[in-house]
Every structure is written in structure tokens, then in C-alpha cells.
Amino acid sequence: MLFLGEVFIGGLLVGVMYSLIALGFVLIYKASGVFNFAQGDMTLLAALALVGFLNIFPLWLAILATLLMMIGLALVVEAIILRPLVARPPLVLFMATIGLGFLLQGIGQGIWGTDPKGLQIGLSDIPFEIKGLLISQFDLAGAVLSGSLVLILVWFFQKSKTGRALRAVSDDHEAALSVGIPLRKAWAITWAIAGIVALVAGIMWGSRLGVQFSLSLIALKALPVLILGGVDSIPGAIIAGLIVGAAENLAEVFLGPYVGGGIQTFFPYLLALFVLWFKPYGMYGREIIERV
Amino acid sequence: MNNNKKEVLLQVQDVHVDFGILKALNGVSLEIQKGEILAIIGPNGAGKTSLVNAINGFYHPSRGHIFFAGQDLTKLRPHQIAALGIARTFQNVALFKGMTVLDNLMVGRNLKMNSLFISQGIYWGLAQKEEIRHREAVERIIDWLEIEHIRKVPAGMLPYGLQKRVELGRALAAEPQLLLLDEPMAGMNLEEKEDIVRFILDANEELGVTIALIEHDMGVVMDISDRVIVLDYGEKIAEGTPQEIRYNERVIKAYLGSPARR
Amino acid sequence: MIYRECGVFKATYQEDMAIFPIPLDRWGVMVISTIAIGGVPFLANDYWLGSILIPFLVFSLAALGLNFLTGYAGQLSLGHAAFMAVGAYASLILYGRYGVPLILSLLGGGLVAAGAGGIFGIPSLRIKGFYLAVSTLAAQFVIEWILTHWKWVSGGVFGTVDAPPMKIWGWVIDTPLKKYYLVLSIVIPLTIFGKNLVRGPLGRAWMAIRDMDIAAEIIGISLFRNKLMAFLISAFYTGVAGGLITFAYYGAANIEAFNIMVSFHLLGMVIIGGMGSVLGSFLGAGFITLLPIFINQFARGLGMPLKTDLLACLDLIIFGGLIIIFLIIEPFGLARLWQTLKEKLRLWPFPY
Question: What is the pTM of this model?
């Protein structure tokens, strides 16, 4: 029973981190109508840059430098990729982000190389105990940090003026323009936020798994979270993240041994597919009513 | 304009269509008689397109039934309903923009093309004969609609008026019994309208197609329709010949609103 | 007036509907085919045959498969390499374990892949858009897992299954030249078949679904049947390609050769080559296959030979960059560029 609890909580904690990445996707989608397939590669790039900067700067300065770099990247992406493609169907933008992902991968590899690097941010690996349950410090810190960022972002989007403007943009570009919301600025802000999310995710996952290519695949893990929750739903991303994190862990531990293990990779997808069959727009996604 | 056919082709019985709490159709019943031209009119939002969408099977009525040539349509999928002989044009032109005019019309004949995909891949033999046969049928329509000069043009590049005409062609290519036209003349100038009216009348008289059209141009409605049905707020408020409808008080009120109180 | 379309009149619909109605096109294709079948063996050395032309042809076939589904039918597939894997393992098992003749094994591998395609195509009946795109990733991961964990298939986790030597009726296929002919003998008929398919009712139904699926359904096109066919046929082609590349190029099947990166490469081929174009599949595959070689030669030519990892990341950068550039400039890819070029040649040297 205790073990079940540990697995469950461990899963939840990981789930919070998934939620964070999924939230990055949702925010970009809500504000610019684009699915940023390059989010994972942005995460890897942020982590690589951080490791690089840590060689010359103290931690706080390195984080700041990476932050500035990610914001700069957001501006460049907005100018070079989003602007020329503004009138195209969403599928085209989506494929452009796939291309962007490769581009960022190549740049990251070119500057910092492909060998795995460690990322030390001062958290130790020793689990600590609560009521007999062993909980990893890493996971807990990750959950706390991600959770805080999630709360900040939710507040930002729901309550602040800029957030409202961003939501208006995602609903209807033209209408937003007509009430004076500068589209490009909105997009730049959104992608900068995505960059920040990538940075935090990069820190968390990078220190957990080491900074290497597989980090970019973490984003792929967040995709089933995204479609399970609904691609334009903030609460959906959060709840789905927790569900996927817990379910994945439980499935691996309890079902895994019967079938040879390794099912965390695809179990979230099957779970999402199952739910999507009954709710084709995810649990909380907005249903697109097509008119003829 | 034939007034003698009384055989009922399509029957709409007490159909309700809801979207959540929004009622698009609130118990509409009507008949379409074989061979007639029926106009469906009403103010914006009255439910005219919803009615046509329900007949096509795109919307499923929450209550009520729709019968076509004896069959209950309400449980069928749109493509099955099309196979029974109902074709349609759309309010916002729904041509396949990435395909040529010719291909758009040929798609209209897909219902009648039966070769297996293996045969299609091999092409020589059965599939080729079938393709030629249907190409001939489609070319007849192209001739009839006078669009030969644009057959190989991608549909997305055509001017609006021609797009509407091509859409009509695609619908006719299926050799339907019933043709539903959703504002076929919207946004056209006088000349284009006259052309389309001519085609509609010809389709009805020469090809024997029963026509139901949603239309806002009252002149056209008065001129060509055998009967008129008026919808308002999802309900049928009047039915009759164009003359009867013209002076119907409820209809006038629906369009113009009640006179202001002094 | 080099590329003449004027003065070419079709007396019958039959002529108008031929694959290559314009004589110059027909002539061009015949020339290329003749070179491919007759000329190449004398012109090309083993390196070109074995390491460039064979992968080019095989990936063209795989890209063509993906193009049916994504370019023609409009259903984005992000995990298509998984079907190559299914074809690879299935054909190996058929040939190596059960002694099914080689060509039948390859086609059989394609059929098994088609089955997998059908299963993973079922979500497309209810799910659309981005949600569908992501669920196609399920194919990638589930199939990867099955092929590595199902002992009957793989013989062990991450095991490599070697391909036995290829023989057709006692005739051993061991030289690059023979392998080249084997590949050609499968790719050419399948390409012709595919070209006929997309010009016919099925292809039109696919494009209708891609352009406006609601309208398509209302005018009588069954979304279920046609989408399913798209998944089946697409997976078949890609599966056969998987078998081919295993036998004629890698010599063994390893799941790593069909990972998610390969899926994205296939997608890139389709985007760059041209979505909804048979020619585009070949152009895209050729482009991507030749790209690393070209970069290498280019760098060497400049006097700066590149180390492999630098080459690898330049590869990524250019690949990603090209996808973006093509989407911005010419979303219909190289095939459309080619068509535009032909249009210009129609008038050259008389612009009017």
C-alpha cells in the first residue's frame, strides 16, 4: 500500500512537470494559434545554454543570461518565421515549427556538442521521508517550481491586462487587431513565455536526466498530455499532466512487469486515444463547430 | 413551372434541431413535391441553412423525421443520403480549391463510379472505360454550363461568380433527384444572376431535377418558384404560392418588424 | 517554345487523360526510364548504386506512401517510419523464417504494414486536426515497443535481425547492381500504380477530403472508407519500402533505423518535394538523401573538409531551415517549382 502511494505521488510530481510543458504548448496555441512542435528542442537548447553559461557565470547570472537568450530567440522566431506565415492555415505553421525544431537542434549541437552533460543546481539525490513514504527531493522541487510557474502563468493569463489581450488574439486575430492589440507584440510575448517555460523545464528535467538529446523528446511526452486535456485549455493541461504522470508510473510499475516493461513511452498515448475517442477535443478542449 | 405534380419527394416531419439550448429548428414540417421549384425564404438566422443541413444529414434532428422517396434519412450519414439522390450547393462556396474544375465535377460523379482500387491502379481496362464514360457525362454538363474554357483551372483561382457556377455543375454531375441550393445567387451581379436562373430553370425542366432553393432575392423567388415556404426563428410561418406569400401579413412582419409605436 | 503545349490537341478524352499528355513530358519520362534501366549500370559505380540510388529509390517509395496519406488525403502522419519498421520485420520473417519467395515477402511485409496502418487509422474517424496528428505518434511508439518486446518478432530487445542472402529462383542477389534492379523492379510498377490511383476517383476523393471534408461527405464521399483506404495504401507502400531497405541496403533490421527522426525525415521529404505530388515524393527523397553528400562535397570543395558531427548538425540546420523556407516560399515544394519552370519554358524564348 505504501509502495502504491509512493508510485502514485512520484507520478503526480512528474505529472506537474508534464503539466508545465503542456502549458507551454497551450499558451502558445491560445495566443498565436500555433502548435510549437519545437518546444522540446527549445527546452534542450535552454538547458545546453545554461550549462554553457554555468562554466563562466554563477548560477543566478547564468539563468539570467539564458533567459535573455530565450527571449531573444522568441523575437527572432516571431520575425523570421511567424510573420511570413501569418495568413497560412494552422497546419503550415505547425510544420514550420517542426522545421524550427530541427534548426534549433542543429544549432545546439553545433555550439555545444552532443555528449551528455550534467546540470547541477544544488539539489541532492537523497530522498526524504514523509510518513513512511519515500519522496525524491528532485521530484518535489520540480513539482514545486513547476507548480508555482503554472500558478503564475494562469494568473497572468486570466487576470492581467496583457493576458486578456493575448487570449483575445488567440480567439480572433482580426478582431484583436481591430481593437488595437498589436499582433506581433502579442506573439513575441507569447513565445518569450514559451521560452521561459522551456528554460524552467530544461532546468528541471536537465538536472534530473542529464542534458542530452533525449531531453528534447520530453516534449513529445507532453503531447499526449496536451491532447488529453484539450489543446486550448489551461486547466486541462494541468489536470491531464497529473493524470498522465500518475497513470504512466502506475502502469509501468504494475502492468509493466507482465509485458516486459518500457510501457511508459506509449501508455500516455493509448490513454489519450481512448479518451479522445469519446471526446475528440480532449477533456476540456473547445469543440470546434464547423459550419457549412 | 409545373403545377401538376403532386407526388411527394421529400417529407420533413416535425424536425427539431438544437445546439445545446439554442434551437435552430423548432418543429418544422414541410413537403417537397416532385418536379417543383420550392423556395425557402426567411430573415437571417431563421434556420433555412439548418434545415438544408438537416436534410443532408450534417445535422441530426433531436426530434422528428425526414423521409426521402420512402426512406428515413434521420439515421443516415451524409454520404449515404447523397447516394439516395440528394445534391447540394453551399452558401459559402465549398469547392475543392486544390483541384481543377474538371476534377471538382468528376468528384460529383464518385457516387456512380464503382471500380475497385486495384483496377484503378492498373487503369488499362475497366477503370479507363469507366473514367471515359464519366468524363463524357461531365463534359455534357460543362458544355451546358458554358464553362469549357476553365476546365483545367484550379477552382480556387476562379472569380466568385464562376465558382458558384462550377459548384452547381458539381451538384448536377451526380444526376440528383433533388437539388438543394443555398443562396446560389448571393453576391452576383445582374448578368450572373440571370445566367444562374436560366440554368436552374433548365435543370428543372430539361433534366427533371426537383429544386429547393434558399434565396433572398424576392424578384427571383416570385419569378421562378412554384411554391414558397417561409421560416422565422426556426419555425414555418407561411406556405403557399408566391402570390399568396407576397401579401401574407406574418411574412411581412417577419421581414420588416412591426410598425413603430407612436 | 521549347516546352510546347500549344499545338498539342487531344482528339479524344482518352488522350487528354493519359498520364503524360504533353509529348515532351512523355519523351522525358521515357528517357529517364531508359537511363534508369539501361544506362545507369554502365554509368554508375558501385558506390553510387549501392549507397545513393538505392536509398533514394526506397525512400522515394516511402515518401510516396506518406504523400498519399498526408499530401493527398490531408491526414498528417507524424509516426510513419513505424510502418517501414513493420514492413521490414514482417518481410524478414516471411522470407527468413517461412521461406516465402522474396518478392512475395516484400509485398507481404507491405500488407502487414497496411494492417497496422488500418488499425492506427481508426482514430481518424473521430479525431481531427492537431489531435489526430499527435495520435499518429502513438503508432510510432506503440509499434516500436511491440517490435522490440514481442519475442516472436524480434528475438530480443533491440536485437538486430540479419537478413538472409537474397535469392530469386536460385539467382543470388548480392551485388549492388542486382540489388538496384530488384529495387527498381518494385518501385517502378508501384509508382505507376500510385500515379493511376491519384488520378482516378480514389485520388479525387482523397483531395476532396483534404480540401473540405464536410462538403465531400455531403456530396457523397464516404469519409470512413476513403480515409481508411488512404491509411491502408499509404502504410502498404511505406511497408514495402521498409522491407526493401532492409534487404537491399541495411542488410538487417533494427528498430533504431525507423525511429521518430526517420518519421520526421519522411515528412520533410514530402513537404520539400511537394505535397500531393508523385513527382514531389521523388524530388523530396532525392533532395534529402543527397543533401548530406552535397554538403560534404561542397565543404571539401571549399577546402574545409568537415568532421562528422559538424556535418551532422549542419545537416539538421539545413533540413530544418529548408522546411521553413519551403513552407514560406513555395508550400507546394519542389514539384511546384518544377511546374513553374516548365510554365516559363512554355514561352521561352518568346515572352509575351
Answer: 0.89
